[in-house]
Write a structure and sequence with these properties.
Layout (H helix, E strand, L loop, with lengths): L15 E2 L2 E2 H25 L1 H9 L4
Antiparallel strand pairs: 1-2
């Protein structure tokens, strides 16, 4: 991973990494996070019956 991640952001410079600016990376990171949350919620909704049936068998 050392070869793919830059050592740091130098102050006063316009930072571009892999052809994208820092603002673009932040935008992509935020959208990817929102997408993952939506997909997890959809996944839980689609498998809710299995979750209920499986946890019903747990004994405390």
């Amino acid at each position: 991973m050392y070869f793919f991640i830059p050592s740091g952001i130098q102050r006063g410079r316009y930072v571009v990494y892999m052809g994208l600016t820092k603002a673009t990376w932040i935008w992509l990171h935020n959208r990817a996070g929102i997408l993952i949350i939506i997909l997890v919620i959809i996944h839980l909704i689609l498998h809710w019956n299995w979750i209920v049936r499986t946890t019903r068998n747990f004994k405390l």
